[in-house]
């Protein structure tokens, strides 16, 4: 058996991911500074309140631009497939680290796919609403009703995005081997087979049939 | 004004100082006495050292056309046709209303950039202002303006510097017809009541005081001939309230959202503690299968026709 690691992310993909991640951390910290008084001290990380206000939208726009890079690269792999429904039904077993009855899935599990589409939706809402409430350049083109709605949607989308990323980061800590895949690019064959069997078979050309999953199992 | 006089402060979740009792002040603007001379606008710009850019005539008497970071008060002129077909020239001095429940203060994310004094004056502290414009989003009266020079928010201070040393606001001092008066809020209400009796006796049946409840009352009040329809005075809101969108954005949802984020982090931590990480065993170098032991798949039954009895293989 070949035990060479499988490449999961190439250097460009990894760079792109971490650019988005760094920009997200910066945009999130500066946004949280203005989100609630309890977190206003975060504005000191950016040189005070006015600098936080000035920098936040630029970091957000850059994050969106780089995120588009990830979308273009990975959107196809995030289409839902037949097994995903059953996987989601068995999410409780996945959460308990149990594998029995959990169907094999492709390069991404449905949780990752849901995250992908949620991130895309949140980023779009953040971008559009963010432009509307960007006082220095754009707000004068919008009425007060749109600005109020945009402000609310911006906070809401940011909240969903932060929650999603907390889940995303935790998944990387929980599933050993996934963080190093994003850092170094490779995963072991065993890892690929265990977590993304359909992808593993696709990459390795391994046609080994698996016992069918009993729906009742 | 002394720091003990600050009874509300933006982006502050603890109670500000509240031991001092001060009488609430108010400015009363009697639209029925206003002749539209704009002396108040000039007095405002003189006292506050504001010199707005000279604009253009847009076909109305409003000059400049709108409030700005350098125009804190503005006469708005309306040609109003009554139901009887009479033409009325309504003139309203626009500017900050100094709400008891200020939408700007509720929306502001910067601690102490907007404060409310015990006497009711709502003031912006440009030193703490970060220029985000949330005060504009929160204001039900469309008053604050962000300067394009320094990106700070500005509006009428009710001459808090003058009031703190016992003087009336500059616009009040200069008004030649006595249309603007200043004093304790109670006195101003009584004064307005007298004016309203007078107006009613002269045929203005709907005359009344504008001190809207939706924002907890204001410290700038109007006597209106048509208090039933404030909107005819260049769009003065009939029922001003802090927009429900702003309420939803800045209300109980934010601490709840903060709690949810904290809970998500904790949930992850305890998942790790209770369930633990997912590791792939036999990483990298899987051991070759041991061929010395004959492994029997329990699902497979071997049938040997040569063996008597024809039974399947005995299993342990």
TrEMBL record, chain A:
It is found in: Cell membrane. It comes from Pseudomonas donghuensis. NCBIfam families: formate-DH-gamm. The keyword 4Fe-4S does not apply. Keywords: Cell membrane, Electron transport, Heme, Iron, Membrane, Metal-binding, Transmembrane, Transmembrane helix, Transport. It is a multi-pass membrane protein. Residues 8-185 form the Cytochrome b561 bacterial/Ni-hydrogenase domain. Belongs to the formate dehydrogenase gamma subunit family. One of its GO terms (molecular function) is metal ion binding. This is Formate dehydrogenase subunit gamma. The chain crosses the membrane at residues 20-42, 54-75, 114-137, 149-175. Its cofactor is heme. PANTHER family: FORMATE DEHYDROGENASE, NITRATE-INDUCIBLE, CYTOCHROME B556 FDN SUBUNIT, FORMATE DEHYDROGENASE, NITRATE-INDUCIBLE, CYTOCHROME B556(FDN) SUBUNIT. GO terms for biological process: anaerobic respiration; formate oxidation; respiratory electron transport chain. It holds the Pfam family Ni_hydr_CYTB. The keyword Zinc does not apply. One of its GO terms (cellular component) is plasma membrane.
């Amino acid at each position: 058996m070949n035990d060479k690691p499988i490449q999961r992310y190439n250097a460009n993909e990894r760079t792109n991911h971490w650019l988005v991640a760094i920009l997200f951390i910066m945009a999130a910290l500066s946004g949280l500074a203005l989100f609630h008084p309890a977190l206003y001290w975060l504005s000191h990380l950016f040189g005070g309140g006015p600098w936080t206000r000035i920098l936040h939208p630029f970091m957000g726009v850059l994050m969106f631009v780089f995120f588009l890079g990830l979308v273009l690269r990975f959107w196809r792999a995030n289409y839902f497939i037949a097994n995903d429904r059953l996987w989601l039904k068995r999410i409780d077993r996945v959460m308990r680290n149990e594998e029995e009855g959990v169907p094999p899935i492709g390069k991404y599990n449905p949780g990752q796919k849901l995250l992908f589409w949620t991130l895309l939706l949140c980023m779009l809402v953040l971008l559009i609403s963010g432009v509307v409430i960007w006082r220095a350049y754009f707000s004068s083109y919008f009425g007060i009703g749109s600005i109020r709605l945009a402000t609310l949607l911006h906070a809401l989308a940011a909240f969903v995005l932060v929650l999603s990323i907390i889940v995303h980061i935790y998944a990387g800590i929980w599933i050993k081997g996934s963080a190093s895949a994003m850092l170094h690019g490779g995963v072991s064959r065993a890892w690929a087979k265990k977590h993304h069997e359909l992808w593993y078979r696709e990459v390795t050309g391994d046609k080994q049939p698996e016992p069918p999953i009993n729906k009742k199992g | 004004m002394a720091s003990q006089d600050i009874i509300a402060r933006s982006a502050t979740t603890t109670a500000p100082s509240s031991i001092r009792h001060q009488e609430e002040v108010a400015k009363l603007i009697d639209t029925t006495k206003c002749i539209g001379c704009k002396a108040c606008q000039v007095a405002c710009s003189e006292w506050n050292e504001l010199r707005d850019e000279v604009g253009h005539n847009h076909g109305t008497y409003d000059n400049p056309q709108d409030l700005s970071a350098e125009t804190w008060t503005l006469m708005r002129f309306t040609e109003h046709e009554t139901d009887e077909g009479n033409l009325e020239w309504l003139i309203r001095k626009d500017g900050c209303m100094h709400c008891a429940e200020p939408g700007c203060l509720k929306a502001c994310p910067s601690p102490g950039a907007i404060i409310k004094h015990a006497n009711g004056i709502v003031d912006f502290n440009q030193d703490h202002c970060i220029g985000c414009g949330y005060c504009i989003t929160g204001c039900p009266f469309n008053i604050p303006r962000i300067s394009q020079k320094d990106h700070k928010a500005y509006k009428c201070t009710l001459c808090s510097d003058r009031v703190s040393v016992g003087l009336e606001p500059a616009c009040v001092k200069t008004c030649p017809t006595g249309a603007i008066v200043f004093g304790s809020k109670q006195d101003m209400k009584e004064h307005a009541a007298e004016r309203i009796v007078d107006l009613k006796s002269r045929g203005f049946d709907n005359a009344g005081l504008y001190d809207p409840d939706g924002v907890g009352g204001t410290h700038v009040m109007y006597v209106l001939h048509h208090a039933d329809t404030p909107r005819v005075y260049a769009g003065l809101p009939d029922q001003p309230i802090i927009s429900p969108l702003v309420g939803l954005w800045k209300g109980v949802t934010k601490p709840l959202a903060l709690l949810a984020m904290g809970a998500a982090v904790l949930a992850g931590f305890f998942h790790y503690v209770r369930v633990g990480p997912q590791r792939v065993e036999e990483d990298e170098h899987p051991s070759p299968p041991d061929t010395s032991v004959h492994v029997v798949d329990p699902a497979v039954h071997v049938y040997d026709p040569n063996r008597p009895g024809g039974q399947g293989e005995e299993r342990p």
